[in-house]
Every structure is written in structure tokens, then in C-alpha cells.
Design a protein that fits this description.
about 240 residues, about 35% helix, Formyl_transf_N_sf, transferase
């Protein structure tokens, strides 16, 4: 995705900071911290390519006791990704797998699997991972890979979801956390948040508003996925 650095107007900034939202499904209080099936924190492997704002949101939810989880490792593919600074600050091990060093997506995913296994990861969290993953990775962690997309799927799949929503003239957009499947931006939907689209919205102002909700729903969706994993392992 492109990152236009033009400053937002005062109206756009107000819209970003104060716009209402709708999150579904609604979870009972303390669900994230008191999963009845969990006798230990779920072990996460986070994959990111950019600034890592969702990495930060997840780490903060864990630190505050809201989310019963532990980040085992960060895997990043961009040597200049700012998410590395966040990982260092949270004292999370970070491993660079530069996609340019691998002859194919499958080779990259095979190396990622090695790293995830080395760090004893149970649930893989793609938080701004800007590479298409292959069945090699999906099959290694079936129903255990989450992705976050800046639209209300199944609408506006692909890498230009925010721009596409504005171009289509929709009045409501949002974000989706879903299980990863071979088809891009598909798979079972775990959680969504809806936000309004305003007449003066740009890509930057709408994306900023969506990101506020991304930071809310990703820890919630991780808790939902973790509950399912713990239930299955307890059988």
C-alpha cells in the first residue's frame, strides 16, 4: 500500500478521533483475560512488514492483562520495517526473513515455518504482512493463521481496499479479522468493526479511522481463536 504523507485537515482529524463504530461479535466482559479453557497463555508468532501498530496494540493488551497470550517471536520481511523497534522495546525476539533472499514464496514460507516451530508458536498473527502466503504455510498451521484486512469482507479484497471503498461511494467501511485460506482475503471471519465513511474522506483519513478499530478487534479476535485452540487441545 502507498503511504501519502499529506497532513489531514482539522475536520478529517476530528472524524478520525471521534467517529462511532460497531464491533461484532460482542464478547462478554473479561473474555480475553479469563478464557475458561486456557490454563496458560496462547503462544503467538506475529508476522509484520511495516510500522507495527497492531503489534503494539497486541503487546499492550497482553501487558495490561486484557489478553492471555505471549508473543514468542516477530517475523518481518522488510529490513527497514519500524516494527523491529517496537519488538526491541517489548523485548520480543525478532527474525528477519527478507523475501528478496528466497527464490519463491514457497521457499520463504518454509523458512518461516522453521522459525515458528523453533519458537514453539501455536497461533500465527499476520499484522500488516504484505506478502501472499502459500499453502505451504497454511497447511503447517491449519486454522491457526489470522489476518487483518481494512474492509468489511467479503467486500473490497486486495491491496487497495480503502481506496476502493471510497471510490465505490460506500457509507460504511471497516476492518475484518479472518482465518487465512489459500484464496486471498477469504477464510472464516472471526470479528469485524464497522466505521462510517464521510463525504470528505481521503484514503489517509479513512484508513486512520479504520486503524483505531483494528487495534480494538485484533486482540479480541486472537482471544476467540485461542479459545478454539484450547478447546480442541482439551478434548
Amino acid at each position: 500500500m502507498t503511504n501519502d504523507q499529506r497532513p489531514m485537515t482539522n475536520d478529517q482529524r476530528l472524524n478520525t478521533e471521534s467517529s462511532p463504530s460497531f464491533i461484532s461479535p460482542a464478547l462478554p466482559p473479561q473474555f480475553m483475560a479469563e478464557n475458561p479453557h486456557a490454563d496458560r497463555p496462547i503462544r503467538l508468532g506475529i508476522m509484520a512488514s511495516g510500522s507495527g501498530s497492531n503489534f503494539e496494540a497486541i503487546a499492550e493488551a497482553i501487558s495490561s492483562g486484557q489478553l492471555h497470550a505471549k508473543i514468542q517471536v516477530l517475523i518481518y520481511n522488510n529490513p527497514k520495517a519500524k516494527v523491529l523497534e517496537r519488538a526491541n522495546r517489548w523485548q520480543v525476539p525478532a527474525v528477519l526473513h527478507n523475501h528478496r533472499d528466497y527464490p519463491s514464496r514457497e521457499d520463504l514460507d518454509a523458512k518461516i515455518i522453521e522459525t515458528l516451530h523453533e519458537h514453539d508458536v501455536e497461533l500465527v498473527v499476520m499484522a500488516g504482512w504484505m506478502r501472499i502466503v502459500t499453502p505451504v504455510l497454511i497447511d503447517a498451521f491449519p486454522n491457526r493463521i489470522l489476518n487483518l484486512h481494512p474492509s468489511l469482507l467479503p467486500s473490497f479484497k486486495g491491496g487497495h481496499a480503502v481506496e476502493d471503498a471510497i471510490a465505490a461511494g460506500v457509507k460504511i467501511s471497516g476492518c475484518t479479522v479472518h482465518l487465512v485460506a489459500p484464496e486471498v482475503d477469504s477464510g472464516k471471519i472471526l470479528m469485524q468493526a464497522a466505521v462510517p465513511v464521510f463525504p470528505n474522506d481521503t484514503r489517509e483519513s479513512l484508513h486512520a479511522r479504520i486503524q483505531v478499530q483494528e487495534h480494538q478487534i485484533y486482540p479480541l479476535a486472537i482471544a476467540i481463536a485461542a479459545a478454539g485452540i484450547h478447546r480442541r487441545s482439551a478434548r
